[in-house]
Amino acid sequence: MTSKSSSLNKVFADLPVTIFEAMSQAARDNAAINLGQGFPDDPGPEDIRRAAADASVNGYNQYPSMMGIPELRQAIATHYGHWHGLKLDPMSEVMVTSGGTEALTSAILAVVQPGDEVVCFQPVYDSYLPIIRQAGGIPRLARLQPPHWRLDEDMLKSVFNSKTKAVLFNNPLNPSAVVFPREDLELLARYCQKFDVIAICDEVWEHVTFDEHKHIPLITIPGMRERTIKVGSAGKIFSLTGWKVGFVCAAPPLLRVAAKVHQFLTFTTAPNLQAAVAYGLGKPDEYFVSMRKDLARSRDRLTKGLESLGFPVLKSQGTYFLTVDLSPLGLNESDTEFCWRIVKDYKVAAIPVSAFYEQDPVTSVVRFCFAKKDQTLDTALERLSDAVRGRKR
């Protein structure tokens, strides 16, 4: 029989195993602590989990509305109105998806046609580029770099042009853990308006910000309300990453097309989880403030521990992650080599940030997840105690 492998879809057939899966498998193979993949090691808020259980036993378990149950769509609109002053019509401007990745896929496939250029910022999350290319789009890659990872005028000038159809913008930014200030958002908004570009905003980390850093949705910047698709994730808001409940918020002309894509991807999302997320979004402000404080404490614990071992830590402004810039250490290895060494020799898994670049990668930065129990972090630090001294030139 003749092999058909050569005729398979090249966009996906040629993709390597993701670094997240590779490092997680290495963590399993080496009995290592996994500080690579971004998930907490606790079960999540009990009251929200109980709400899901109750909805499963006593609620409706058949197909819910494709757009999401009305209670959740209303809860999303109310939540964003409260936190960001964003007024949304829950029936025409809000849609529920099976996770943030599906929300982004629906948005990209709704907007991008063959030949369209799409601006992306490296480091770029691994799902963006394959979906853009599957839609026939052409990624235009801008390069962010440590320690500040900020946008600037020259960078935007180099990638925006008359062929630009969309920009895919992640804020807060995984993996660099930066929360973009209003100045950067206004600069990006100016270019979107100048070139008539739609912004697809991956804002799944919107509630996970620290210190005085405040998340500002791009859709709230003047001139962006009608040209922005905002994506959120209950999994990130409530540390329930396995639930896969995402949100899409956009003006009706944009949302209608994204909904048509969603119809043929997952169609709908588990109703018991939707009911529980609606309950969670209505929790008082103190819950969200406390959640951030707890994560900030874990961030500080890992930061201080790594710094005491000689690691140059870049301050995390948001997300579950912090990054370490190895370049001042004079190690004779790249970030990827460092990550493979520590998972094998020190039994701790991390992620090389170069994996988030397709062109001209930054090769000295490593990402660690701090959304773990104190004991997990402390054990990882003990294991890493000689990782710097053991590799000096």
Automatic annotation (TrEMBL):
Residues 33-384 form the Aminotransferase class I/classII large domain. InterPro entries: Aminotransferase_I/II_large, Kynurenine-oxoglutarate_AT, PyrdxlP-dep_Trfase, PyrdxlP-dep_Trfase_major, PyrdxlP-dep_Trfase_small. Its cofactor is pyridoxal 5'-phosphate. It comes from the Bacteria. It holds the Pfam family Aminotran_1_2. CDD domains: AAT_like. The keyword Transferase applies. GO terms for molecular function: transaminase activity. Keywords: Aminotransferase, Pyridoxal phosphate, Transferase. This is Aminotransferase. It comes from Bradyrhizobium iriomotense.
